[in-house]
Design brief:
alpha+beta; Endonuclease, Chain A; nine-stranded mixed beta sheet; eight-stranded mixed beta sheet; 14 helices; 23% strand
Length: 473
């Protein structure tokens, strides 16, 4: 029994501390960038109580795919039409639209090199087929399902055992006998056992050619029908940073045991046009380097600086303390949070955001809630504007949690440095102000009191699950 216990503890520790695969967890150089734009999906309620959704992210993704001549490389976490019984009405069949766009562009340009990287959640970890991935393969498009066994485990209590007892069982897509955790079809027991590892390739990225230039895009949005009403943000940019984004995806392909297409190996930044006139610069960040950039940005906020944050999950202890400290130093901080009521069509209990909001409110940080109606406030957004006129924007896939920021999930974000009056920074400021103040007759947010929760039991439940990884956030 002692020997078995020792094996379990060693396995659990290895899953937490094992080396990251090559190329994972990087901060790429800051590079000049052109055509930098913030794209937003905003769902709101008008004065008459009608619900509306203004969407830009996947409109732009589909447009970029439709003009590509040489390369399309995508990495998307949720790429399916799963939806729970109580999910918000789907505004768009995003998974089918993306599949169709990729297949049609491949047929129109046979020499186009298309690579789709995704997470095994879309096949329930091998427990059911994916009609969208099958359609891409049939069209000659490279599909790479990420090998999550190569990354660390946020939930070592289970993953240490799973590696010893259950990983070797594999899975089968010939049908299961348990109800799917995502509302459609049936799942195998082995799918549930794999799901409990709580690992994910959570990235949402796109790289395409555009004439002589390259365009990159990082987003918080998924091509997932059940998420199509979510509030999201994305950042589009041209220049060397787009090729850095491409290099970051090559690392995921390599760790998954797939071959990087030869046509992509020779792409170099030397052929890129000159930098932009407005001085915008972009840096690609992945995994734990996103955390480092967020902490550095918050720590550098001085008295009089403005710091605006909008995020789906906020629970990372280092970031909570840093935001409270920035407020106490005299920075003008505002935090907009999802109330954590809905996920995959199921009701949630508000953990962790309501517990973190309690801490922030007690520290004097102004907090508001997104006014959701079945959808999620799914942005991951930080905007810092200094009194001297400089601005910093960090946008991407990573929620502000231990799981997303401490080298467990695969994540991608982009950091923009520019003057506060550039187009992208002005748009970011307008986006947050509209969400915070409910301007133009759009009800997007609610006061802190609406979802305030001072339960000590739920607070310490959040602290325990954040520290141990025994949570879904």
């Amino acid at each position: 029994m002692l020997a078995l216990l020792a094996c379990y503890l060693i396995s659990a520790a290895w899953q937490v501390y094992k080396p990251l695969p090559a190329g994972i967890g990087r901060n790429f150089p800051i590079a000049s960038a052109g055509d930098v734009a913030l794209l937003t999906d905003i769902t709101y309620v008008d004065a008459a109580g009608a619900r509306h959704s203004d969407q830009q992210v996947f409109d732009e993704i589909l447009r970029l795919i439709g003009q590509a001549q040489r390369v399309v490389v995508m990495d998307m976490f949720l790429f399916n039409d799963f939806a729970g019984a109580d999910a918000a009405p789907s505004l768009r069949p995003l998974s089918a639209q993306l599949t169709r766009a990729l297949v049609e562009r491949k047929r129109a340009v046979p020499g186009l090199q298309v690579v789709m990287i995704t997470d095994p959640i879309n096949t329930l970890y091998g427990g059911m087929p994916s009609k969208h991935l099958d359609a891409l393969r049939a069209a000659g498009i490279e599909t790479v399902v990420t090998d999550l066994n190569r990354i660390r485990a946020p939930n070592p209590a289970w993953s240490g055992l799973w590696q010893l007892c259950c990983r070797w069982l594999g899975n089968s897509d010939r049908g299961g006998w348990l109800p799917s955790p995502f509302g459609q079809g049936e799942a195998t027991l082995r799918s549930y056992l794999a799901l409990l590892n709580l690992k994910a390739n959570h990235r949402k990225t796109l790289v395409v050619d555009s004439g002589r230039d390259w365009v990159g895009l990082v987003a918080s949005a998924n091509p997932h029908d059940g998420s199509s009403a979510h509030g999201n943000v994305a950042l589009r940019f041209r220049g060397p940073a787009a090729l850095d984004l491409l290099r970051s995806e090559r690392a995921v392909v390599a760790m998954s045991g797939a071959a990087w297409p030869r046509s992509l190996v020779s792409i170099a930044p030397s052929a890129l046009p000159a930098g932009p006139a407005d001085g915008s610069r972009v840096q690609i960040l992945t995994e734990g380097r996103i955390r480092d950039a967020l902490l550095a940005s918050i720590a550098s906020a001085k008295p009089g600086d403005r710091l605006d944050i909008a995020v789906f999950y906020f629970s990372h202890r280092g970031l909570v303390k840093a935001v409270a400290a920035a407020q106490q130093r005299g920075a003008k901080v505002r935090v907009l949070l999802d109330p954590n009521e809905d996920a995959f069509g199921r009701k949630k209990n508000g953990i962790p955001n309501r517990q973190v909001a309690l801490e922030l409110d007690q520290a004097g940080v102004p907090v508001r809630w997104c006014d959701t109606h079945g959808e999620q406030c799914h942005a991951k957004f930080l905007l810092k504007r200094s009194a001297a006129g400089a601005a910093e924007l960090i946008v991407g896939s990573a929620n502000y949690t231990r799981r997303n920021l401490d080298d467990y999930n695969l994540e991608s974000s982009a950091r923009v440095l520019a003057a506060a009056d550039t187009a992208a920074m002005s748009r970011a400021a307008t986006y947050f102000e509209q969400s915070w103040s409910n301007t133009e007759g759009r009800r997007i947010s609610l006061p802190y009191a609406r979802y305030a929760d001072d339960s000590r039991l739920r607070y310490w439940r959040y602290r325990f699950t954040e520290a141990t990884g025994l949570s879904s956030f």
